[in-house]
Amino acid sequence: MKNQLKKIAVFTSGGDAPGMNACLRAVVRAGVHFDLEIYGITGGYQGMIENNIHLLNAGSVGNIIQYGGTILKTARSKEFMTPEGRKKAYNNLKEIGIDGLVCIGGNGTYTGAMTLQNEYGIPCIGCPGTIDNDLYGTDFTIGYDTAINTAMDAIDKIRDTADAHNRVFFIEVMGRHSGHIALNAGIAGGAEGIFVPEKDNEFADIICTYEKKSRTKQFSIFVVAEGDEEGHAFELAKKFQENYPETDIRVTVLGHIQRGGKPSANDRILASRIGAHAVKALVEGINGQAVGIVNDQVCFTPFETAIYHKKEINENLWVMNNILTR
Ligand code: F6P
In what order do the strands lie in the sheet with 220-225? Predict the structure, then answer.
């Protein structure tokens, strides 16, 4: 059933992720389909506070589906975390008559949306945009597929030089407090060992496996999630060196390269589906929730659940990888 929605605004917030542009395109084009006025907020929540809000049309989002980054820019706003900041932001939205918000980003973006909706009653809907894949309520987040492919390509390249020099490499990937990128890029890149925050004592296990293999293996690749509880790649490499003083070890931190680049087909499709369904949901009166795709079905998860439930790594993949790397 249709409600009286007339004007919606869309923004991207938090760390950018490849596919955010595809999501913006879908939101705007779906908005046009539903005869809505669509506004773009440049610079996330900070842009909302600074009234950086402008009208978009179908043409505003032409020729962007293939680009990483976000044409609406993004930010992490400290001011929006204050009641004064949110009041300014809300007043700007009210002035234009915005009656629905599509919020594309990660956990922090959802927290901001939930707070704004709770305080001012403005209907918000979330779209999961982060390379970390750490949002509950969707199998995959927008940007994750591209990021693991970028990480895999980098691992492949490092493998060449590791092989040429008979070296051991510790490669650090992003993921904040989660190990989705490390586990999946590590499997795809054939890493010998993977360190994720969700598991303890990988170092001891890896040493044990390495002992058995060191007679035949001349080089090794270990993938480390930046949030691993045993330390960052440099610390783990140091520990490894203490155990194997003769080994030639190098560390590569992949960093922000994982956030950029052309979104993969999977990310563009995911972003398009999620963006279009976010607008449809707002029109149908669904809000206070995040859109996700679970088992290929569109679903909605209340912000609170999406924010506070941890999305675990795939245990089957973890077990399988331990078998494959023995
Ligand atoms: O959430 C995406 C992410 O890239 C994380 O993987 C990483 O921990 C963080 O953002 C880095 O943030 P910044 O770009 O602010 O350094």
Answer: 193-195, 220-225, 168-173, 249-253
